[in-house]
Amino acid sequence: MLGALSRNRPLLALLRGGNGGDKAASAALWAASKRFMSSDNTITVREALNSAIDEEMSADNKVFVMGEEVGEYQGAYKVTKGLLQKFGPDRVLDTPITEAGFTGLGVGAAMYGLKPIVEFMTFNFAMQAIDHLINSAAKTNYMSGGTINVPIVFRGPNGAAAGVAAQHSQCFAAWYGQVPGLKVLVPYDAEDARGLMKAAIRDPDPVVFLENELLYGESFPVSQEVLDPSFTLPIGKAKIMREGDDLTIVTFSKMVGYALKAADELAKEGISVEVVNLRSIRPLDRETINASVRKTSRLLTLEEGWPQHGVGAEICASVVEESFYYLDAPVERICGADVPMPYAANLERLAVPQIDDVIRAARRACFRKEEKKQATA
Amino acid sequence: MAALSSLRVVVPQVDITRGASGAQGAHSAGAVGDKAFFGLRSGQRLGAEVGRVTLRGCGVAVPAGNVRATAAASKVVKEKAKSEKAQLLVTKEEGLELYEDMVLGRSFEDMCAQMYYRGKMFGFVHLYNGQEAVSTGFIKLLRKEDYVTSTYRDHVHALSKGVPARQVMAELFGKTTGCCRGQGGSMHMFSAEHGLLGGFAFIGEGIPVAVGAAFSSKYKREVLKDDKADTVSIAFFGDGTANNGQFFECLNMAQLWKLPVIFVVENNLWAIGMSHYRSTSDVEIWKKGPAFGMASAHVDGMDVLKVREVAKEAVARARRGDGPTLIECETYRFRGHSLADPDELRSPAEKAHYAARDPIVALKKYLLENELATEADLKSIEKKIDDVVEDAVEFADASPLPQRSQLLENVFADPKGFGIGPDGKYRCEDPGFTAGTAQV
């Protein structure tokens, strides 16, 4: 018993916040303690989210989780697995099916100094609570003249899943991305999930954290740094996943994976694609987007949501406004079909972008290939 | 009783134009000084039987006749203690405090109307005239750190909670010295210092927020082990809100988790031009509490002393940890819904009936009859309030408008936002970041 305690002490000290010990050794110790970790540091997005929430709850006991099935059911998508056992029912609350009520309750608790993480089973259900997301969370810091802030995180799966039809498949990135007062994050891989979740929990403003159900089970290799409890990512900074010279693809969430696969295919044809993973819809990293377009001269935006007033529309507008003279081809927008999501499997495939669509649009954009331009930003 | 078709005008159950002395069950207006009744005990079976219980620690009594034959058994009636000398409900200091607060509310709102018609105030302005007893009766029992949420009719809640009249008036004028720096306005009064969490334009929006503040209080006590955390929160809202889904969701959660929140329905019978009787299937709002297992009461909201008695018990229950209470206050607004409302649908007879029950006049009468104050005392209070309100107007007039740069301020609490600290580096690179907060 005592032996077990003394083994855990350095681990606990590490989890309570870095103490200047040997970083690599302590990270390795931490990694070894997590049974799900394989030896080559690959974790799933689900594990990344779970560990991020777990660590933040350990570090700050004002953080708590609430939502439907987050406790005893271990999370509708198992993202909150194990948290009830570890932190107890006072900090992991199973709520009744009352989105408007419990979202407002979370906002009130945040106004009073706690740090809630509100889970929506999917963001479609958040439409029943959107009044509180916008009117009491996003707008309060402004309406109160800066005296009352709302440090709350709203998280859950967003966008299309598989065969769940119209009311369960909407992408809300464009809707929330329009609202001043919200920070909107869209992680892709495990590193994004961990870093952005930690940043979101620590942030003093309301954060809408749009995950993707189909990405939860995907594994990604992560570095030791990512596994460290103090790892966070800055909010508002995009990541260049892959460098290229001929075409910029700007995208987020699951579509980043599609863009990377398309880029591999296009490389065989001699088209070198730069893939920008937005990570953050609001604030949008216009600097990174425009710097990339000024380098490649061609833009392709890729998203699963509907085309009109979508995220791609904003990116295209931003590039046309700021980098018009650098463009060698019209901007290309790939979006989901302008229909509610159909149920039939073949129709559903037609309603969301596929890798082939990306490849074809990329070839179209590269039709007038000019000499390479210098990066100017 | 209620019409099945909305095409017919619904006759209210109670004839409100009858004189104040009639005993008419739940809607009766007793004389000032009559005790309020407090119906609760949701655990009892519904049925025709009504029990009689003395409320613990509270010497309050009610006239035995005030029971509706068809009422649910969850209402409990107390025996009236007929005594030679009327039991005084307030001390002199308390009485004068209540009087001053109500006169402040009334004068302030009257001044708002004047300023609006002179163009100093604009947009939507909803005045509270006539309902002062509810705000004063409840809020004057709270501590500074207790929380209040309200709707758009929030000026007087702000004043009762302690926000200085100057700051409220400046906010209404849209000046930078207002309590929200001019960024909130009439419908969005917030004050972190005084525990006013809004000011919400959407009815029903403030209720979950108040429940959340109550949740925080309980969380601090039980999870963060802060024994002194026993703050209470009150949500004020109207009869129209009592039909809204969020209200029911909150009744459920508050009772389920026994949160220290009080739901106060200011039933002024009208939601803009929609009569309560035309829009509600069961007009007795207090009855919605027992459906969720919650203690509830109905009280005459034109009588500040009755409201105060009921409020005392509700606040004490919440602080003890006994859970939420739903209180329906029968009240009335003397003016229209807002300053833009022509107020054509309410009958003059109804308005006259309630004007005769003006809470300020009633309290004045009580204080004088029971020799708790003299005319001179009350006159000096009125004069003092006139000065306060005049001063507030002058202050607001003289205050500057917000500067242009203020337009983009306060969108986020994190000033540099976007994960970048004041030194320009990414926050995640800061060695102190593991401390767990972005506060810089």
Automatic annotation (TrEMBL), chain A:
Pfam families noted in UniProt: Transket_pyr, Transketolase_C
CDD domains the record matches: TPP_PYR_E1-PDHc-beta_like
Reactions performed catalytically: N(6)-[(R)-lipoyl]-L-lysyl-[protein] + pyruvate + H(+) = N(6)-[(R)-S(8)-acetyldihydrolipoyl]-L-lysyl-[protein] + CO2
Cofactor: thiamine diphosphate
GO MF entry, a single one: metal ion binding
Classification via InterPro entries: PDHB_mito-type, THDP-binding, Transketo_C/PFOR_II, Transketolase-like_Pyr-bd, Transketolase_C
GO CC annotations on file: mitochondrial matrix
Main location: mitochondrion
Residue ranges of every copy of the Transketolase-like pyrimidine-binding domain listed in the record: 43-218
Function in brief: The pyruvate dehydrogenase complex catalyzes the overall conversion of pyruvate to acetyl-CoA and CO(2). It contains multiple copies of three enzymatic components: pyruvate dehydrogenase (E1), dihydrolipoamide acetyltransferase (E2) and lipoamide dehydrogenase (E3). The pyruvate dehydrogenase complex catalyzes the overall conversion of pyruvate to acetyl-CoA and CO2.
Name of the protein described by the UniProt record: Pyruvate dehydrogenase E1 component subunit beta
Automatic annotation (TrEMBL), chain B:
Name of the protein this chain belongs to: Pyruvate dehydrogenase E1 component subunit alpha
Domain of life: Eukaryota
Cofactor: thiamine diphosphate
InterPro entries on file: DH_E1, PDH_E1_Alpha_Subunit, Pyrv_DH_E1_asu_subgrp-y, THDP-binding
Top-level enzyme category: oxidoreductase
Oligomeric form and interacting partners: Tetramer of 2 alpha and 2 beta subunits.
Function: The pyruvate dehydrogenase complex catalyzes the overall conversion of pyruvate to acetyl-CoA and CO(2). It contains multiple copies of three enzymatic components: pyruvate dehydrogenase (E1), dihydrolipoamide acetyltransferase (E2) and lipoamide dehydrogenase (E3).
Lineage: Eukaryota, Viridiplantae, Streptophyta, Embryophyta, Bryophyta
The keyword Oxidoreductase appears for this protein: yes
GO biological process assignments: pyruvate decarboxylation to acetyl-CoA
GO MF annotation, one: pyruvate dehydrogenase (acetyl-transferring) activity
Oxidoreductase is among the record's keywords: yes
Catalysed reactions listed for this entry: N(6)-[(R)-lipoyl]-L-lysyl-[protein] + pyruvate + H(+) = N(6)-[(R)-S(8)-acetyldihydrolipoyl]-L-lysyl-[protein] + CO2
EC number: 1.2.4.1
SUPFAM superfamilies linked to this entry: Thiamin diphosphate-binding fold (THDP-binding) (SSF52518)
Domain Dehydrogenase E1 component stretches: 101-403
Record's keyword terms, sorted: Oxidoreductase, Pyruvate, Thiamine pyrophosphate
